[in-house]
Structure formats: C-alpha cells, structure tokens
Design a protein that fits this description.
heterodimer, A: about 120 residues, mainly alpha, 3 helices, elongated, B: mainly alpha, Ribosomal Protein S7, 2 domains, two-stranded antiparallel sheet, 2 strands, about 55% helix, RNA binding (chain A)
Chain lengths: ~120, ~220
Amino acid sequence: MRAGRHAPGYVARGKFADPWKIPFREMIPLKLRTSVSARGDNRNGAFCVQEMSVLLACMKKNEFEERHCSTQLTSFQKCVSETEAALKQKKAAARRGDLAPGEKKLSHHQVTGLLKKYPG
Amino acid sequence: MLRGRLLSVISARQMAMFGPEFKEPHFRKSELEELQKTGEISKIGHIPFKAAPSAATVSPLYDPLLEKFTNYVMRKGEKQLARDLMAKTLQSVKRIQVQKYNAAQTEEEKAEIEINAMKIFHKAVENCKPLLTLTPVKKGGATYQVPINITAEKASFTSMNWLIEAAKSPPKDARFYNKLAHELINAAAGTGKVIKRKQELHKQCEANRAYAHYRWG
C-alpha cells in the first residue's frame, strides 16, 4: 500500500492521500514465483592451472621453443579436453534438471524443476 | 524457455539458411570412400544435407586448409582475386625453394630442402599456432590479462591471421604474394616475424601466469 504521488486517483495540491482510504489492487500475485532467475549461474573457475604453469615453466627454461616441451603440452591439452568434456556433460545434465543424490550446488534449472514439482 | 524451444524447432540460428537437421555435405571422393568403407553411407542415405559450397570440388588438388586461408585472404568478397593471390604465393614459394635446391652443392644439402610448396604451407600454419592465449578479466576495478587455453579453431585462425598480417605489414616494398611466400618459408623453418610474435604471446602468458586462477573473475 503506497501513498503519495503513486496513489491512484487525483489528489489536490496541498493535500495528501490517506493510505487507509486507497483501494488495494493486486498488480502482481502476492506469492513467490515457482522459478529462479539464471543470474550468476554461469561462473566456472579456472582449470588445469597446475599443468599450465608446468608448461610455461618448461617453455621459459627452453627459451620459448615448444618442441622441447611436448610432454608438458600433451598433458595440458589432455587435461583441458577432459575437463571441458566433463563440464559440458555436467551442464547438459543440469539443463535437463537431473538431480544427483547429495548434490549441494544446484543449477537454476534444477531449482526451478524442484519448485515446479513442489510449489507452495 | 519458450523462446529457446521455438527457435530450436524453427532453426538453430535466426537467418540460418538450413535448419539444424541439415548435415554438412561430403563432397570429397576420399570422404565418400571412407563412408562407404565404414558402412556409414547407408545410415546417412535419407537425411537432408546442406548444399555444398561453390568452392567445393572433387579435385585431388583441393585442400581444406588452403580453402580456409584463401577465405581469410579475401576482402570484400573478391574470391577470384584471393585465389589468384594464393596461387601466386605458392608459385613464389616453389620458385624460391627450387632456386635454393639448384644452388645447393651436395646431395645432402639438396635432400634437406623441401620443394613441395603445399607441405611448406601446412608446416608454416602448424608452426605459427599459439598454445595459449590471453583474455581480459575485470577483477576489483583492474583488468588483468589472464592466460587461458586456446581452442584448435582459434589457434588455427590466429596462425593464419598473423601470417596474413605479417605479409601486409609495412614496408610495402614487395607484392603481397611475395612477402607471404617469404613469411611461409620462414615460418616453416621456425624463424621469422610470425614465430617471434607467437613467442611474444607465450612470454606474456608466462609473465601473467600468476593470474591464471582468475579466469571469469
């Protein structure tokens, strides 16, 4: 219930609206939605930092000629491809709304799915 | 949610010429033979395919990487000009290498000189691919250049773009195709401007390695 310049109807200059006399209208339903927004959901941290620093250290030692660092490079690339595949799978599962037992951090898809299932 | 669903029904992207059910065409003879050998061809017999691009050909001289490079060289849609430039570049590479070959005194020296221009082109593009890249990440009011992994497509594009930029850079004392030919030969040998540029990027990545865990703020 809001008084002042947002009150419905005309209020004469120098007067003010009595909040108890303003008819209440429900503009949006007075209950919580059964969904959550997707804001702040797409944060994923850095990965393969260890492998990257090993590769960079090797490159620095060999004056940035990467042919001396092929083992470090393959281990870094393997780590990246594996992590990316795992993240992709996880994202797809979260999008489908699959729930793993004992999962602590839920995606907005999962939370929305749960709220839709058990509203109220 | 609804919008996503509708879009996925209508097409993958707005303005897309073909819907998501259309698969990439197989126009090369080797590809078709491979499909026939694995028996994949009977599975894909009745699914829709995109139209092959106008530059597609069954010629054994067709090279996907060269096609890509030609498209990167192209400006304002002048494909014929880009193709001519690439042909002249490869011709120039061949001339330079054959000259070296003929000037070589001994058989051992001759054996070391690569005179296949396409092999030099492939090796040059491969040698110029960066292993890491830097991405700006805003954190606490400051922007950090954070080293991250680079995808295969991005590395390939970066390599070719650097080669083209090096060939276009001043001084403009020679034709584009001659400068590009020299850049390709140098890059294939692991020397030259573009290799230096790649190493500069790697050095910057090394200097900023402390920020590696900052990825995505």
